[in-house]
Amino acid sequence: MALQNIGDKNRDDAFYRYKMPKMVTKTEGRGNGIKTNIVNMVDIAKALARPACYTTKYFGCQLGAQSKFDEKTGVAVVNGAHETAQLASFLETFIKKYVQCYRCGNPETEILITKTQMLQLKCAACGFVSDVDMRDKLAAFILKNPPEVKKSKDKKALRRAEKERLRNGEAADKVAATKQKKSGPSKSTKKKTCGSSDEDRSVTESHSDDDEDEDEDEDEDDVQWVTDTSMEAAKMRMKEQLSDVAAGMVVLTTEDKPKPTKKKSPPRKSESGNSQESLVKELKEYLKKSPSANQLKTQLSSYSGTPQEVVDAVFEAVFDGIQKGFAKEVNKKKNYIVAALAYAEGSQTVLLHAIECFCKKASPDAVKEVAVALKFLYDADLLEEEDIVEWYEKGLSGDNKGSGVWKFVKPFVEWLQSAESESEEEE
């Protein structure tokens, strides 16, 4: 079965993971009874994660013709003779309205019905909730025929329970091992030693002697030795170790010498002697010339700062002052990010840290779009799944766990992990 990428914008992307079958139609009947049968409508709807009756009804609404989908046989029929290309174009508009996320374009969305009877699309990748236009005829049909609620993933629950069971078992084994060490050998080992030969007894006795020596050493280690640090005690020790003449030459003082004051380290500098702030200003001035990615890469090589400092400066200079539309700007200026990543020798950790530093200084509107920006970079193969998840987990457990950026990154990380588990199940 021939497959194609979901969404017209992703048509030429050879590595796009979301695919659906190409539409196959068949004209049946003649005269007034002529009709068009979409042969693989069930497979298409399954790939889009939407009921087949939604797509069939949408065709009927757009063509102004009667349409019907039989749940038992899986046959989708639209009255009249219609070309495959025309139906395929209608399917693309359906995907844009009812499948793809309005912000990041990801087709892995879920239809939600609010209390006020409004339709929304919740994206599993970036967490954005899109409002669907209720003026469309299909919206009323969806309200009358809501999608089935997805059941909880039993396999995930089983895996989590298995992990928890293994953790509890390991903890119980450790407790049992410590108890066995404290209580000594078990009855079974005692019986074996009683019925053993003289040679075995001699071996066990030698082992027990070694154990006793080790216990004595451990007891000695537990003793805390206290040294008298008074002036009189120090003089007595010196008299014992030194001669009277040598002891008289030693002068004991209790006055604390003034500690040398630590000089403040100068701000980070570039090759031209500029600080980090002036480096950002210098890059801003250079970016006004609209350089190419190769020109920017050459310019970055003239700085002597660390890769992290330079990439942080690039990210701040390129996206400084952006509020709404931050993710779109990241997608537009990916070539500059590629140049910065090349300067950092492909270190994705440096790039992720630069994004984190930028979010600390950026406006709240820009931080809200960080998940979409990460998805654009992930789709462009500039970021890998493992690095993103590791960066996220370190951020939650580190000093910056209170930062607000992590709650906006969380939906994207959960989407990555769920996609990985689903691919493992398919394999």
Structural features:
427 residues; alpha+beta; Defensin A-like; 19 helices; 55% helix
Chain-wise SSE layout:
Elements (H helix, E strand, L loop, with lengths): L2 E3 L13 E3 L3 E4 L6 E4 L2 H8 L3 H12 L3 E3 L6 E4 L4 H15 L10 E5 L5 E5 L5 E3 L5 H8 L9 H30 L3 H8 L3 H25 L8 H11 L2 H6 L26 H12 L5 H8 L6 H13 L6 H7 L1 H10 L4 H14 L2 H4 L2 H10 L5 H13 L7 H22 L1
Antiparallel strand pairs: 1-2, 3-4, 4-6, 5-6, 7-8, 8-9
Helix pairs in contact: 2-3, 2-4, 10-12, 11-14, 12-14, 12-15, 13-17, 17-19, 18-19
Structure description:
It is a single chain. The chain is α+β, with helices and mostly antiparallel strands. Among the domains are: 3-144, 2-Layer Sandwich (Defensin A-like), CATH 3.30.30; 276-426, Serine Threonine Protein Phosphatase 5, Tetratricopeptide repeat (Alpha Horseshoe), CATH 1.25.40. Helix content is 55%, strand content 8%. It contains 19 helices and nine strands. The chain has helices spanning 41-48, 52-63, 84-98, 137-144, 154-183, 187-194, 198-222, 231-241, 244-249, 276-287, 293-300, 307-319, 326-332, 334-343, 348-361, 364-367, 370-379, 385-397, 405-426, and strands at residues 3-5, 19-21, 25-28, 35-38, 67-69, 76-79, 109-113, 119-123, 129-131. It has a four-stranded antiparallel beta sheet with strand order 3-4-6-5, covered by helices on one side. Strand 8 and strand 9 form a beta hairpin. Helix 10 crosses helix 12. The chain is extended and about 125 Å long. Pfam families: eIF-5_eIF-2B, W2.
